[in-house]
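Task 17 of the worksheet. Students: predict the tertiary structure of the chain below and write it out as structure tokens. Keep your answer in the requested format; marks are given for formatting as well as content.
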Amino acid sequence: MESPHIFRIATSSSQCLRCISKPSKPSTLLPRRSISTTPIHSARGGSFNSLNRLSKDLRSLGEKVVGNKTKRSTPTSTNNQLTSLSQTLGRYATRGKLETPYDNKPIEPNNPHHLHIYATKHNTHITLTQPNRNPIISLSTGNLGFKKAARGTYDAAYQLGSYVMNRIQDQGLLMKIQNLELVLRGFGPGREALTKIMLGSEGMGLRRMVCRVTDSTRLKFGGTRSPKARRLG
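Model answer:
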């Protein structure tokens, strides 16, 4: 018969004396996190302010280490790493969104020249313009002596593209062009002909300067009524 004292201990702690006397094992469960009452800041607010403060702290730490203001001596390489790290964080934290130098983003060219290729069913036009859109060379198949229906053929467009490439090289424009944007418009025979020229030996000089290929073909959403279809036979 257990004493009332032992019975009272067992009921209060829900354990017997033998279990209480045993050493308790360390708990393997992770400690519970307390609920934070700090408001969540927006992407342009608190997180970047804290990043700015971190960069300032790192910069001040690097200056202290360089000036030998700390008691512990630090190697010169560590000083340079701290200074460069603080400058990098400060540079990329001051923008609207967080950017890292390791992001694989395409570099936008500065003021590229434009090579416009307008290929219709009946003709092909090629225009080379400056970065401010002023034309340098503007030719069509009619300038090479093609007449009427011959202007809309694949052969006429190929000869026009080859002539334009030779003229660009003869005028010394390859030295002036650093970046080139290729602007295609229309789906005539000249579109494929100029594509073959740019990928062939004639376009070898300009091919390495192409930074962007754009399709500016007009698309009609509703619009005016289309012409009546031809009835043959």
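Marker's comment: Helices lie at 4-13, 17-21, 46-66, 76-93, 154-170, 189-199, 204-207. The chain has a mean pLDDT of 77.
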